[in-house]
Write a structure and sequence with these properties.
Layout: E1 10-13, H1 17-20, E2 31-36, H2 40-43, H3 46-56, E3 60-64, H4 73-85, E4 90-95, H5 97-111, E5 131-135, E6 147-152, E7 157-162, E8 170-173, H6 183-201, H7 208-233, H8 241-261, H9 265-277, H10 281-299, H11 301-310, H12 316-327, H13 335-345, H14 360-371
The structure holds NADP nicotinamide-adenine-dinucleotide phosphate and fe (iii) ion.
Fe (iii) ion binds next to α6.
């Protein structure tokens, strides 16, 4: 199989990197739409830094701050309507994966007419507004992927738009915005990033480059686990700034991995937990990842052995134990739910990415082992 590596995003990292690199916004246009969630960007200083940088280079802007978690198709169309009616030249998304995913869909829909029924068709004109992204969680890596994942009510799941022009032009990585990120979101997003890196290694599209990036990401995240657990045990403390930095870099690396490899059955199965049970995205992956590794190990023991070694663990059981400690008590999922979720997950494109291809019954067993 031929392998490909494509990652056209300019990545600028470090404390105060937005204000110090305001010139980078100039080539994107004269008017920006800032796409973000309701609160966090205003509280963590990221929106203020972006506005300061834009003011300093004479770029005007308006703010669309209505992006909810797991953004809907309607939210993307609403944002695109605002972008069009205000003639904005480019999009700046600030936040976790949700504003970044919405930002990409807005950049696409503002540049071309796409009917709702064709939104996930993959057939688009080569026109997208330029984008600059500021991740404020360390998890999705959406600042360096070509995916926009939206809640797709027509299919009762989350569906990904995958289009090479959706890679942002610039990503600014500054971990200072995460100083007050809650323990729960810190863990869930770190687990999402870990899942990206591990799934990348379990993908048929894995390559020498993606595996090198994935291995480093896995190592970095696993090294942060003791720090995170210590932090959780001490009330009112903040997580050490170096750990925050490490998690952000690891999440970015894992994003570059899935940009090449896609995600596997783990994400496909997790989407139902999010859609029907409102389980956080990263948490959903973490609850399923261990059992999917065990399933894959039956035919690919060396691959899973290598991943476990990179994690500095003994076996899959020990990994599941680490996830249990991080994620706590599991949600209740009934056997009927499991049957239905398996029937949805098996239809997704992700299944074709798995090095060991599961059938629907395998997915059912993985859910059962994870929850019952
Ligand atoms: P999120 O839904 O973007 O944000 C979760 C919560 O964290 C929100 O309440 C948000 O508040 C808050 N928050 C964000 N940054 C914060 C900060 N620095 N300090 C305090 N609170 C903060 O969660 P996420 O886990 O980052 O993203 C999950 C989404 O990404 C899912 O929809 C998933 O499908 C998608 N995803 C996309 C890709 C991709 O490649 N495109 C990959 C993986 C996952 P506000 O709402 O006020 O901002
Ligand atoms: Fe994810």
């Amino acid at each position: 199989m031929t392998s490909k590596y494509f990652m056209p995003t300019r990545v600028v990292a470090g404390r105060d990197c937005i204000v110090q690199n305001s010139d980078l916004f100039r080539p994107l246009g004269k008017k920006a739409l800032i796409v973000t969630g309701a609160h966090s960007a205003k509280n963590n200083g990221s929106e203020k830094d972006v506005k300061t940088a834009l003011d300093s280079v004479g770029i005007s802007y308006l703010v669309f701050d209505k992006v909810m978690s797991n953004p809907s198709v309607a939210c993307a169309y609403e944002g695109a309507g605002i972008a069009r009616s205000n003639d904005v030249d480019f999009i700046i998304a600030i936040g976790g994966g949700s504003p970044m995913d919405a930002g990409k869909a807005i950049a696409l829909l503002a540049a071309q007419e796409i009917e709702e029924e064709d939104l996930f068709s993959g057939k688009y004109d080569s026109k997208v507004l330029p984008m600059a992204f500021v991740p404020t969680t360390a998890g999705t890596g959406a600042e360096v992927t070509q995916y926009s994942i939206l809640t797709n009510d027509r299919k009762q799941t989350k569906t990904s738009i995958s289009f090479d022009l959706l890679f942002p032009s610039i990503a600014f990585l500054d971990a200072k915005y995460m100083e007050h990120l809650s323990i729960e979101t810190t863990i869930n997003t770190a687990v999402d990033a870990l899942s990206h890196a591990v799934e990348g290694m379990m993908s048929v599209r894995a390559s020498v480059i993606s595996n090198a990036l994935a291995a480093e990401s896995i190592r970095m995240i696993m090294c942060c686990v003791p720090e995170i657990l210590d932090w959780r045990s001490v009330k009112n403390a903040v997580l050490d700034a170096n750990t925050r930095e490490q998690l952000l870099q690891a999440s970015f690396l894992a994003g570059t991995v899935i940009a090449q490899t896609g995600t596997t059955a783990v994400h496909a199965m997790g989407y139902s937990l999010t859609y029907f049970k409102d389980v956080d995205h990263g948490r959903a992956n973490g609850l399923l990842l261990g059992e999917f590794m065990r399933f894959t190990a039956k035919q690919q023991p060396e691959l899973i052995g290598r991943i476990i070694e990179i994690m500095n663990l003994q076996d899959v059981d020990q990994f599941i134990n680490v996830m249990d400690i991080l994620l706590g008590e599991k949600e209740t999922i009934s056997p009927e739910d499991i049957r239905y979720y398996s029937s949805l997950a098996i239809q997704t494109r992700n299944i074709g990415n798995c090095v060991v291809t599961p059938v629907q019954e395998d997915l059912q067993k993985i859910y059962e082992a994870s929850f019952l």
